[in-house]
Each structure stands twice: as C-alpha cells, then as structure tokens.
Design goal:
alpha+beta, twelve-stranded antiparallel β-sheet, disordered N terminus, 12 strands, globular
Amino acid sequence: MSRYLCVASVALAFVGCGSKSSDSSKSAPPPEVTGLAAVPSSAEAVIGVDVGKLLDAPLVARVVDQLFLRDATLAARWEDVKSQCKLDLGKNVKRVMLALGPNQTTPGTGPVLLVATGTFVEADLAACMRTIVGKGGGTLTAKPLDNRTLYTAKDGNRVLVFAFGRPDTLVLGSNEAYVTESLAAKGQKLSDNPDMKAWLALVDQNAPIWGVGRVDPRVSGGLVKYVSGLVAGPRAIAGTLDPAGGAKVAASIVMASKADANTLESFTKTQIGQIAAAAQLVKLGGVVNKIETKVANDIVGLSVALSVEDLNQLLSALDGGAPPPQDAQPSP
C-alpha cells in the first residue's frame, strides 16, 4: 500500500497547479468527516478520497475494470468481501484517508493507515472479517483498548489491525502501534503539526482526490544534484485530482525560497518541451503541451486539464496495441 502512496505523490509532483490561499482551509470539510482527525501528527503524507465523487468517473471505472481483468483472484476476493460484509461503496463508505507514517531507512516505507468514514456496524464487520480470514485458516482476535475494541486479523504472514475511532470511523493498518496512536484521544494529530497545517491549506479538501506530503530529504537532496542552480530541493508537495469529464490535476511544489522556485520552474519548462517533442512520435505532443507552470513566492505550480478525448488518447498510447502477426517462417 505504501507504494501506491508514493506513486500518487510522484504523479502530483509532475502534473498539477496551486497557490497559497486561506479559502481552501476555510472551506475544508471537518476533519472528522474526512478521517483527518484520526491521522497522527507524525504522518509524512496523506491522501484523501471522496468515494461518492469517484464512483461514476470514467477514469476510475476503467482502472477498476482493467485491474480486475488482469487479476481474476482479486476480482473474486472483492466480490467475496462485498457479499460477506454487505459493503456498498458510496453508501457505506463515504470517504477514505490514506496516511503514511515516518520511516527511518527507506523513503516511503513507514507504517500505513487507512481511515474510512461512513456507515458501519462494528459487530457485522467483525463477524465478516472472522469469516473471511477463517476460510484460509486465519484467526481474528479482539482486546480492549480504552473504551473500544482493537481487532487483529492474521492469515499466514499477513496481519491487519483495525478498530473504530468513532461509530462512523474505521481505522485499519498492519502496524498495531501506529493504529493505536491514531486512536489516542489525547495524542497530537496532523492539524497540530505546523508544517502540515500550512500545506493542507494549499489544497481543496472537497476535491475527489487530494494529497499532501513531505518530501524526504534524501529525495530532495538528489534533485539538487540533478538540477543545476538549485540550492535546496522541494520541502513538500500538495495537489488534487478530479477525474470527472477527463482528468484535472493540480499540484503545488513547496520550495525553500523563491529563487529555488524560479530555478525549478525553468528546469520543468525545459523538460516539458523535450517530452512534448518526443511525444509527437505517438501523437501526444498536444496533450503534453497542455501542462502549465507558474511560480507564486516559494511555490511552483503545475496544472493540466485533459478532456475525455485527451485521456483516451493518452491511455491508448500507454496501453499500446497487440504486436503485429509474425510472418510465416520460410521453408527450408
């Protein structure tokens, strides 16, 4: 799961736009609604998803269909979960929050939390999980934690820990300590972190998908070596994605200074030009040229708005076609 979070962060880094605005924070939904209230202050990155706004999006439907076509086992398990747990996305699950905790060694390998808000029945969900893990010889155990119950599902080497923060908030993860930290009523939460609080104000938390993440110093330092004239690398990335009617992506890359922001923007424009030239070979030059950049103080903004036609063209090029039929071998 942490790999998905990293991929999403990288995607926002290369495609997207934004500027500092207090309007975003004022219009943001309550943290209890989004699941943000359950994220510990130590989290390095968060991604929020409004499930209801994504169910009818063509891009999301296509990704799900392709995923199931390529993994029949996954499709079967999903159907099993839906039938056993009586799960109805958009009705039972309203929003999902993914949070990546701190790491000490490799970037992107910290503990991961999934916080889901919606309509749940704890007894039904526990019974459902017990049935599912039991099919493979696994077990589900429960123990008290303050005024709630902490469940641990084990199936072979796989472990899933979950509990209810509130009746409408389900917290899941594979790291018991991090799940417990998220449930602590008196613990510091993400909005108590000064840096994260400022970066959260850069995104519209009402967007179908939004994310904010701190850039690991090792990654930031690597960019300094690659981009000539850059004194310090990015500090954070914040962005949104709206897949309705195509794909609208926006990102804000927070730099250490305005000078570094100008340097990164200049480098980015050069790279976009080179990519656009190469993309002409697969008739995607026009799509790449839609990427826009701008600088506002210490923030580099990137944005792109793709129509359904643009998106189909891009996905077609990425998918590629079947290899042409081979000619018959010559006779001896």
